[in-house]
Design brief:
Distance between the termini: 42 Å
Helix content: 25-40%
Mean pLDDT: 88
Number of helices: 4
Length: about 80
């Protein structure tokens, strides 16, 4: 199983992600993510595109209690 995503990595995700990437954000593997989606037990709303699932980053952030904000704030002294 791939390593779980950090808070910064979750914030940096695109507006919608694959079920596998969403699973990584939650610390679950591919098989469990697909089992939860198929059984209707996935903890966020799912977007179904043909045979594929997508998850909105905003829903992941809400579930994880992460505020959507900049992934890295530049030091004003180092700019310029």
């Amino acid at each position: 199983m791939a390593a779980a995503l950090s808070v910064e990595q979750v914030r940096a995700l695109p507006a919608s992600v694959t079920l596998v990437d969403a699973g990584r954000a939650l610390g679950v593997g591919r098989t469990l993510a697909h089992e939860l989606a198929r059984s209707g037990k996935w903890p966020t709303p799912l977007l179904r595109l043909g045979t594929r699932y997508r998850v909105r980053r905003a829903d992941l952030l809400d579930l994880l209690g992460i505020e959507d904000g900049p992934t890295k704030v530049a030091d004003p002294e180092s700019v310029g």
